[in-house]
Amino acid sequence: MDCKKAEALEIPVSAQTDVLVVGGGIAGVSAAMAAARAGAKVTLIEREYGLGGMATLGLIAIYLALDDGLGNQVIRGISEELLLMSIKYGCEGISPEAWLRETTQEERAKNRYVAQFNPNLFALEMEKTLVAMGVKILYGTLACETVMEGNRIQAVVVENKSGRSRITCKNVVDCSGDADVAYLAGAETALHEGGNGLASWYYYQQDGAVKLKMFGLADVPVSATPPEEKKGDNPYGNATVTSLTNMRFSGVDAEELSEAVIQAHTKMYEDILARKAEDPNYAPVSTSSIPLVRMSRRICGEYTLDEAENRVAFDDSIGCTGDWRKRGPAFEIPYRTLYSAKVPNLICAGRIISVTDRMWDVTRVIPPCAVTGEAAGLAAAMTDDFSKLDVKELQKRLVENNVQIHI
């Protein structure tokens, strides 16, 4: 036994679970819901004190398209369930009205299945849902080490207000957003070459109304997308979102990340004061409470999906997604993008699945994160060796849960 493992085994066990979901963003919530519904004992750990990640704590309160832009819905299951949950008490600015009533495909082709939601209500609704399902949520908890038995994860060492402890588990669903568990467990990972741009979205009050200020564009890396591909419908309605600077940061370096957040805060503060000088009634209401990191580190899975595979059919598809940036493209997501056989009881979901840099911008947003989260959570309830899972049985159960697995 190596010294590192021996030291880790001296750390007390604080919990035992079937499925450990690391990260409470949209992917993590979806994974926990799917695993719990399949009968697994589920523990979800989240470093912040709320669910939803970028969507809620980051105030990126736009539930992007569940369709292909041609009037065809390509995403269903928990992803659609969460969209409807997010607007349970009404939309804020962008409504998927054409998709919530009987209408024509032509009308739906003109209006994408997109919604703007209230992030606070959405976070509370997700928490209520998971608690009712029996999911154990540990807030303020960070995964900081893995205890390995050969190439399998035996436990994850976590740190929170109670100190350091071990959570033993049959398997782990990494929904950390940065492939933290995959990295700690020794799985092969890759960094996004384009990095992330500065952004710090915030809510403000003016003329008696509270509105979302999309301050800084953190969606498409600088020069990563040809100009002709930027044409078309603005997924953010009539809002204009621009880049703050040309600074790029990886999202996985502590000092760099802190500097990026400080710079984003500085520019946001300047923006608020400038607008307040024009209108004394202009006042900030809330600001993003987490860094707006979009693409950082991902797993190198058994298959790497590329943007060129538009409408390509995969025998092991676990769900579909459109392209939120433009009309027409649609993609099937292979099960093999979620795991690496090098760590058999680890599966990934959300923005860290195995895709090329250009495809990353498609799969990192809310709807496909929920799609991969649902598949990963259900798979985690079915096996503790993801490379040996009966994919046909997984697909059968996903279809029974109203997931669309083929375009």
What letter string, H or E per element, gives the SSE order?
HEHEEHHEHEEEEHEEEHEEEEEHHH
Distance between the termini: 49 Å
Total number of beta strands: 16
Which residues form runs of ≥5 with pLDDT under 50?
220-232
Number of helices: 10
Instruction: Estimate percent helicity.
Output: 25-40%
The main pleated sheet reads as: 7 strands, mixed
Radius of gyration: 21 Å
Strand content: 15-25%
Question: Which outline best applies?
Answer: globular
Write down the overall mean pLDDT. 93
Query: From the helix content, strand content and strand pairing, which structural class follows?
Result: alpha/beta
Walk me through what this model shows:
This protein is of the alpha/beta class and 407 residues long. Helix content is 28%, strand content 21%. It has helices at residues 3-9, 26-37, 78-86, 105-110, 119-133, 180-184, 254-278, 357-363, 366-382, 391-400, and strands spanning 13-22, 42-46, 62-63, 115-116, 136-139, 142-149, 152-160, 163-174, 189-191, 202-206, 209-213, 283-287, 297-299, 317-322, 330-334, 346-348. The strands form five sheets. Strands 1, 2, 5, 6, 7, 8 and 16 form a seven-stranded mixed sheet that branches. Strands 11-10-12 form a three-stranded antiparallel sheet, covered by helices on one side. The protein has a two-stranded antiparallel ribbon with strand order 3-4. A hairpin with a 7-residue loop joins strand 14 and strand 15. The model is unreliable at 220-232 (pLDDT under 50).
